[in-house]
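Page 42, continued from yesterday. The earlier attempt failed because a stray header line got pasted into the input along with the sequence. Redoing it now with the clean sequence only.
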Amino acid sequence: MRVLVSAGDASGDGHAADVVRALAARRPGTRFVGLGGSALEAAGVEIRVPLRDVAIGGLVEVLGHVPRVFRAWRTLEAIARDETPDLALLVDAPDLHLPLARRLRRAGVPVLYYVSPQVWAWRSRRIGTIAARADRLAVIFPFEVDVFAGTGLRVDFVGHPLVDRLSAVRARWQRETARAALGLPADRPVLVLLPGSRRNEVRRMLPLHLAIAARLRARQPGLVTVLALAPTVSAVDVEPLPRGVDVRVVEGRGYPAMVAADLALTKPGTTTLELCLLGTPFAVAGRAHPVSAAVMRRLVQLPSWTLPNLLAGAPVVPEFLQRQARPERVAAALEELLAGPARALQLERLAGVSRRLGPGGAAERTAQIAEEMMRGRVAA
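This time it went through. Structure tokens are written below.
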């Protein structure tokens, strides 16, 4: 048996790897090939397209990387045509995967789409596209099942994949052990910067995050700043750092850095749920390309871009985007989260959001769906 796996960003790489391990345990001897990063490679997937080739964020920013995306499609389409996979597991990344799903369906490869595009937030016309191009859909928020009602697509709520992963992180790491592993002092406040998992967004976010950290350090002279880079970003991508910047760069150890920190600064995205589940107070700040931001404002009608705020229906996490992301404002909000009522209140509300993400077992449930589809393929 052979499975084509594709994940278009760092978080999807981790989610897909969990499913691959669960499916390999269910069906020993299955071969996995496709597009991914270090997590999928460690899970035993033969990487034909490196994740770094397609991990690009933004609307305008992606234009310069179109040739690489087309090469990825051609490579994966060739696998579907020449190696006849029994299943394709596509994880999130709709701009990459919806065109790919059409190619896979034409090649006769069943498609399991895991982690639905956020059609409940924007581009709702994709609901019909997903229904036409996927055979089954595994969603991670319970309300997403109703979004696809009436389409004919079989949709299963499997739970959020981060629940299991972050539970394991909490079991492995405590604040003291994480600081020791990272060489951080035990008696000083620590701020972790999480500017993103795509190189282009890191280059755009990092100057802002460093400026915020500098303002906070001026208010809190003992503050230690850690820059945690995702597996898809290396220190080479952020060097050289500006002169006079006092920051410790950590590669590939984001979770220990989050646990070690007293507070965090991140952009909108998956890291907001990771910090929520780990119980690390944080604020969100980011600036997209002005054209991308203008287009998104017209397309998306949401009260917040921060997932815990959306799930809570309230401003649990301070959010500063585009012109609102002024370093002095963000630094003041972070300082309030270091100690006192603001910190305790956010931690209480983050715990409530964590409970809404449901029980663990998302990867195992998705692997069960994949196995059902593979058995159906064999029976046919």
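Notes: The CA atoms of residues 268 and 305 lie 6 Å apart.
Reminder to self: strip header lines before submitting.
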